[in-house]
Specification:
This protein has about 280 residues and is α/β, with parallel strands linked by helices. The chain contains 10 helices and 15 strands. The strands form 4 sheets. A 7-stranded parallel β-sheet has the order 6-5-4-9-12-14-15, sandwiched between helices. It has a 3-stranded antiparallel β-sheet with strand order 1-3-2. A 3-stranded antiparallel β-sheet has the order 10-11-13.
Length: about 280
């Protein structure tokens, strides 16, 4: 297959799915890992895609939202490390909310596997998150699923979702994001999902954002929170130190999860206020 033919197949995959994986492309195109990486680099130099860890995404996908399956394959090691670290912030006996997203899904998997976090109430607008919690088959782990309309990322959104959330109060909200930047804050391509995320921030005593390094300096169509509203940002150690320092100046607490030590992450600073229900936002 000629390089031009490979490039067209790669771009077609991006148009169809919003993201491509190097491992999948080597199998589909019948070429080496090095060849695929070189093809991605050439296309990135032309501005036709943006390279991320393990693959590539559309270059300016401000209004495009890849499906849950496509996003699940990207930066998987980083997301797992972030999820394990974020689980250390969950206190038994508390109530939390999990937004839709592939990293929050992995956090739900961690929560379902850890019986020491019981009892726990989890509010979510994510179908995969609710399913992961349900698989624990433990009555001490209560999953509250909002209603609403379904998005490509398997999130439930819309007026029904926002009305359900408005009547609730949780100790912490754990949120994913399509993009994170100092200037724009937290963004997502989906306008309805942004509105739901704003509702999750509003009902939470503390907001915890889970965002791997590939989300940094990416901007989606709709802003759902400023970085000043974030109490804790959990990211991975592939985020450049300069960017870590920049966000530390804005966010209440930045926790960096080590990918090479994902099974035994360094515990973040605990928040004593999460051990009991709260009536208002915690102080920073």
């Amino acid at each position: 297959m000629l390089a031009s033919q490979r490039h067209e197949r790669i771009l077609a995959g991006l148009r169809d799915h919003g993201a491509v994986r190097i491992a999948d492309l080597t199998h589909e195109l019948g070429v080496s890992d090095m060849t695929v990486r070189r093809d991605l680099l050439e296309l990135a130099d032309q501005g036709l895609l943006r390279k991320v860890h393990g693959g590539a995404v559309l270059p300016q996908a401000t209004s495009h939202e890849p499906g849950f399956e496509a996003k699940s394959a990207l930066a998987l090691d980083e997301k797992r490390a972030i999820a394990r670290t974020a689980a250390l912030l969950v206190a038994p006996g508390s109530s939390i909310a999990l937004s839709a997203g592939t990293t929050t899904y992995l956090l739900a998997v961690e929560i379902a596997a850890d019986s020491t976090l019981r009892p726990l109430t989890v509010v979510t607008n994510s179908l995969p998150v609710a399913e992961a919690l349900h698989r624990a088959d433990d009555p001490r782990l209560e999953a509250v699923l909002t209603g609403g309309s379904r998005t490509p990322s398997d999130a439930l959104v819309g007026p029904l979702t926002e009305a359900a959330l408005a009547s609730l109060r949780v100790d912490q909200a754990f949120l994913g994001a399509h993009g994170v930047s100092i200037e724009a804050g937290l963004t997502t391509p989906n306008l309805d999902e942004a509105a739901t995320n704003r509702a999750l921030v509003a009902i939470a005593g503390r907001s915890v954002v889970l965002a791997d390094h590939t989300k940094w300096s990416t901007t989606g169509l709709s802003v759902f929170a400023r970085l000043e509203q974030v109490d804790v940002l959990v990211t991975d150690d592939a985020l450049p130190v300069a960017d870590q320092e920049a966000v530390r100046a804005v966010v209440g607490q930045v926790v960096v999860a080590a990918r090479d030590d994902a099974a035994h992450p360094t515990p973040p600073t605990p928040n004593p206020s999460t051990t009991a229900p709260q009536d208002g936002r915690t102080s920073r």
